[in-house]
Amino acid sequence: MRTPPERNPNQLFNNADSFGIVFDEAWRRHNLENPNHALSRAEKLELILGQLAGHPFAESSPELIRQVAEFRLRLLRL
Fold this sequence. Notes:
Layout: H1 16-33, H2 41-51, H3 56-60, H4 65-76
């Protein structure tokens, strides 16, 4: 049985799954780099979405990225 190839962190796809993975990483990285940030959840969400504006899915479906982000936050209890 073949094993799937390793994920290339620099490879982005124009779909919600790819955006969700990058969003999760950005959210967690922000917590690690800024543990004492005083941002509310809503402010942090806006910050992260702004950082990911260049993602292919954000460019093609900007009306859906907030829904994907909110879903990921609920799913992963972040």
